[in-house]
Design a protein that fits this description.
heterodimer, A: mainly alpha, 24 helices, globular, B: 379 residues, Rossmann fold, OB fold (Dihydrolipoamide Acetyltransferase, E2P), six-stranded mixed beta sheet, six-stranded antiparallel beta sheet, 24% helix
Chain lengths: 609, 379
């Protein structure tokens, strides 16, 4: 029963309809726009990094005989990998980064996994409070913890006032004050939350009937833990391990705070110092190596946990869950956990806050109490930190606060909106090539360490490019980079909120004759409000504490609070530095609290902030 | 009121060929049920009809007008096809009240407010949920949500009403009630209805005609009675009927214009006037007898044709299902009312040869019709 009409694929009507079908379908339009944006802001920069490492830079023309600017060269890779400086440029920092990455991950998994198990599966008391306290270090910017560390352990080796221990007469050794040990410990305190969040959601999804079955078969509690529970949460822990590893080798601010002053370099501080000394090509080559390590990680992660997304938590609800009795160990374990949390959560905060009220650092007494660092007028005490004004009296502070608020708000709004759009594409385009492509592209910024991303954007938008004007030194660049860097998370939260809106709800409206705009306005937007808000809050908190991404792009004029704290630290103006950290903590915690009050925000979804 | 023709429709999802050269005509005012196991293409057919999916090949006509011509890439948008759809999940918008849900489509058409109100109330009253206008879907029971979904679909007075497994989320009792209701609705509105289900009871009780799908291929289109008594293939015969049809392997041979069959449950011969158009090989060939469980008669006094013994008994009040083992073949027998048998009790069976169907084992096609009830009486 074939059509008897002869068929030609080039009939005019067919071509016209094909064209109309493609361009009147709003899905295609959004995909097209998203692709252009993603390619321009993600793929082009990545290509740019690669290309730059093979091109002769102007400042190196003399070093490479017979070359002119822009020629193809292997000079930089050669210098990085095979020259006499490659040890100090690459190999040593790389080893340091790997050491930090592995140690941090192992420690984080141990601590986070144990805490998760205690909170989820045991009958430890005061779970609500515990689970909040456990999360707090994660909400704090990681660099503020390194500050707290220096406030306690700083010794006389570097300038500025000594730390708390030193001022009461305990001389801290160098290895405890700076370098790998404090870096690893501080990062562990920051990142154990990953293992905790991933581990606890995995544990929650285990049906306790599985464990009870083991009990019926006669297995002891330890056997059950080792043979049933542990293998079930292993994928989650593995995932947390790899996540922590790739985060901690790429992190900049903590090694910078605790390593720079003793010349302890990691691969990310190397990128920073090479960029700031205009060794762009070398910096990029190092960045590429970092990106490669991160990609291998993600790949391993996906292999390890199968089809699951590398940053996805393990969902699903198990059945009933009966708690494991700790018995006579219940209180001792609780006390140990509380001591641990006091040391890693409460103490650092307390020390930071206290130090801002102590005229002379380290001397904690009532007579030493002052509000000078908060409220002192400029030059009211000319000998104290060059007469620097108190934080609340300092124009620079208000300027930075205002910048931070502006940045955080605009990035959260823009990124969340784009995230919802991309979420729409990936959820509706499930199984389509376009959906997968957008999903993959938007994931790339996740692979690029913040510091490397900053380096790329710094150079890419230093000059006019096509319709984009030169953006270096503008606020727009900060918004742009923060938005792009946060897209993976925005898209993820957008996808999950769009996935919750059944396709049929939209199709029902389509049948009723609602066009795309009407559907978006009257069906999708009202229904995705909750998801929008939660995505918004996650990005909000993430951008608030961001430093690594901005450090190369900021100028004193456009400083954010994090950057202000960093520059105070460079000038050894500790009380001001701590003050900034306290303000950021207060703001972030406030937002987190509000988010928790208004809507249920899934913190696990923000992994990577 | 709408006559629908699907011609040579092919639909692919990627490399997955889900509708294979589908040809189906749905007459004006018909209640056509698309029936088949999950993944057979019935829902895809519905979605292609509605315009939510576009086929890669084929033509769809509604009242003679072309709504789809895949070769010209001509696809009329769903809202211009004069149809409405009830989704399996109901797809009620959770942020709108019942009234807003039902009024949505009308309000898009810029209908005057009074008119909308009148028509919405009308539709809701017809579905007996007139008092729930200001509730949100989450405040309604599953059955009530179902009624809202139907009200939303009929308020625009569509020429064609599509229903995608509308009863599958309801419990057994509600399902019975809604079956009656939908059947009544079809009679009152006179609309052409296309109804997708995997539940054969729904299909058999409600439809004017049933289209059975397997793996994207339309196997049979016929009235419920014909489908039940004479499934065209073993596949359809296996699918239709609850409890399942008994299949008995046998040897057939056509001699003197009659079909002779030898089997464990007896030897039969059939008049050629009951033959189908399927070609039959010469000589002996394997066949399969299809015997509905209610057509086997059990005898405890040894007066039956074939001897066997009781394998298991499942009384369920209104009927008793008995499994009988006859020469290594287990047959399912359905008897009305409560019957008392002992396991391993000796029994014998008789089967009326006119009521059984015969299939060629090689092609799986029907080669001999069974007689429908009314014809049987004339014998």
């Amino acid at each position: 029963m074939q059509n008897d009409k002869p068929k030609s694929p080039f009939r005019w009507k067919r071509i016209k309809n094909a064209f109309l079908n493609v361009f009147t379908n709003p899905y295609n339009i959004i995909v097209l726009v998203s692709l252009i944006v993603l390619v321009y802001f993600i793929v082009v920069p990545l290509g740019d990094i690669i290309a730059t490492t093979f091109k002769v830079q102007q400042r190196d023309i003399r070093r490479i005989p017979g070359s002119s600017e822009g020629d193809f060269t292997l000079y930089y890779w050669n210098r990085l990998l095979f020259s006499d400086v490659s040890a100090s440029l690459l190999w040593k920092p790389l080893m340091n980064s790997l050491l930090i990455g592995i140690s941090t991950s192992v420690l984080s998994i141990l601590i986070g996994g144990l805490l998760a198990w205690l909170v989820v599966r045991s009958d430890i008391p005061w779970k609500r409070g515990l689970s909040l306290l456990i999360i707090i270090p994660y909400i704090l910017p990681s660099w503020s913890k390194s500050m707290a560390w220096t406030a306690v352990f700083k010794n006389a080796r570097v300038g500025g006032v000594p730390g708390f221990l030193n001022s009461i007469g305990i001389n801290t050794p160098d290895w405890l004050a700076y370098g790998p040990v404090p870096i690893i410990l501080v990062l562990t305190i920051h990142y154990y939350a990953y293992a905790y969040l991933l581990g606890s959601s995995a544990l929650q999804s285990i049906n306790s009937e599985l464990e009870e079955m083991g009990e019926i078969q006669g297995a002891s509690k330890v056997k059950i833990l080792a043979r049933i529970t542990f293998p079930l949460v292993l994928p989650a822990l593995l995932s947390a391990f790899i996540l922590t590893f790739s985060k901690s080798i790429g992190t900049f601010s903590v090694p910078a705070y605790l390593g720079f002053k003793v010349n302890y370099n990691t691969i990310s501080t190397m990128i920073y110092s090479q960029s700031t000394s205009s060794n762009k090509a070398v910096a990029y080559a190092i960045a590429l190596i970092l990106i490669m390590i991160a990609s291998i990680n993600i790949f391993l992660n996906q292999r390890a946990i199968g089809a699951r997304k590398s940053y996805a938590t393990i969902g699903g609800k198990g059945g009933r869950s009966t708690l494991l009795k700790l018995g006579s160990w219940r209180m001792p374990i609780f006390i140990i956990v509380m001591i641990f949390l006091t040391i890693v959560v409460i103490l650092p905060l307390l020390i930071l806050i206290l130090q801002t009220f102590m005229m002379e650092q380290g001397k904690i007494s009532l007579s030493n109490f002052t509000l000078h660092y908060w409220l002192g007028e400029e030059f009211s005490k000319p000998t104290v930190y060059e007469g620097e004004a108190g934080i609340f009296k300092n124009k620079l502070f208000w300027n930075s606060l205002w910048n931070t608020v502006k940045l955080v708000l605009s990035v959260s709004v823009i990124a969340t909106l784009i995230g919802q759009m991309i979420g729409y594409i990936t959820s509706r385009g499930r199984g389509k090539f376009s959906g997968r492509l957008v999903e993959q592209l938007v994931f790339i910024p996740y692979l690029i360490p913040s510091i490397a991303f900053g380096a790329v954007y710094m150079s890419m938008f230093a000059v006019r490019r096509g319709i984009m004007p030169a953006l270096y030194g503008t606020f727009a660049l900060l918004i742009l980079i923060s938005t792009v860097k946060n897209l993976p998370f925005a898209a993820r939260s957008g996808t999950s909120s769009m996935m919750q809106i059944g396709m049929e709800l939209e199709e029902a409206a389509q049948i009723e004759g609602a066009n795309f705009v009407t559907r978006f306005a009257r069906i999708i937007t009202p229904l995705s409000k909750g998801g929008f808000f939660s995505g918004f809050m996650l990005i909000f908190i993430g951008v608030m504490k961001e430093l690594d991404l901005h450090i190369l792009l900021l100028t004193p004029k456009m400083s954010t609070l994090s950057y202000l704290a960093f520059s105070y630290s460079n000038d050894n103006k500790e009380p001001y530095e701590y003050g900034c950290a306290v303000v950021i903590f207060a703001l972030t915690y406030f937002c987190y609290w509000v988010a928790g009050k208004i809507g249920k925000v899934d913190l696990a979804g923000s992994l990577g902030g | 009121m709408s006559r629908i023709e699907l011609k040579n429709v092919d639909k692919f999802y990627g490399n997955n060929h889900v509708l294979k050269n589908l040809n189906l005509t749905i007459e004006d005012g018909e209640f056509m049920t698309l029936l088949g196991p999950s993944g057979c293409g019935k829902t895809t057919t519905l979605r292609v009809l509605s315009g939510l999916e576009n086929p890669q090949h084929g033509v769809i006509l509604m009242d003679g007008a072309e709504v789809v011509n895949a070769d010209d890439l001509h696809f009329l948008p769903p809202s211009k096809r004069g149809l409405n759809l009830v989704f399996q999940s109901y797809a009620l918008w959770p942020h709108m009240t019942v009234f807003e849900n039902v009024a949505f489509g009308l309000s898009l058409k810029k209908m005057p407010k009074d008119e909308i109100k009148k028509r919405v109330q009308n539709a809701l009253d017809r579905m007996q949920i007139g008092e729930f206008t200001q509730r949100y879907p989450s405040e309604l029971s599953g059955g009530q949500q179902q009624r809202v979904a139907i009200a939303r679909a009929i308020v625009s007075e569509p020429k064609l009403l599509l229903l995608d497994e509308p009863l599958s989320n309801l419990d057994a009792k509600l399902r019975m009630d809604m079956r009656t209701e939908i059947k009544r609705l079809h009679k009152d509105l006179g609309t052409t209805v296309v109804y997708v289900t995997h539940d054969q009871t729904e299909a058999l009780t409600m439809s004017t005609r049933i289209a059975i799908f397997f793996n994207g291929i339309l196997e049979q289109v016929d009235t419920p009675i014909h489908i039940y008594t004479n499934p065209v293939s073993l596949k359809v015969a296996d699918f239709i009927g609850n409890p399942k049809t008994n299949f008995v392997d046998a040897i057939g041979e056509v001699k003197n214009n009659r079909l002779y069959v030898e089997s464990h449950i007896g030897n039969f011969d059939f008049n050629s006037k009951y033959f189908t158009d399927e070609a039959m090989p010469s000589g002996k060939f394997p066949v399969v007898l299809g015997v509905r469980p209610e057509q086997i008669v059990l005898h405890t006094d040894g007066s039956g044709y074939a001897e066997g013994h009781i394998y298991s008994v499942q009384p369920s009040g209104s009927e008793t299902l008995v499994q009988v083992k006859v020469n290594d073949t287990i047959l399912l027998v359905k008897e009305i009312g409560l019957k008392r048998y002992q396991e391993d009790q000796k029994v014998s069976i008789t089967v009326h040869s006119h009521l059984m169907t015969v299939y060629s084992k090689d092609t799986g096609r029907l080669i001999k019709y069974a007689i429908e009830l009314e014809d049987d009486l004339n014998q």
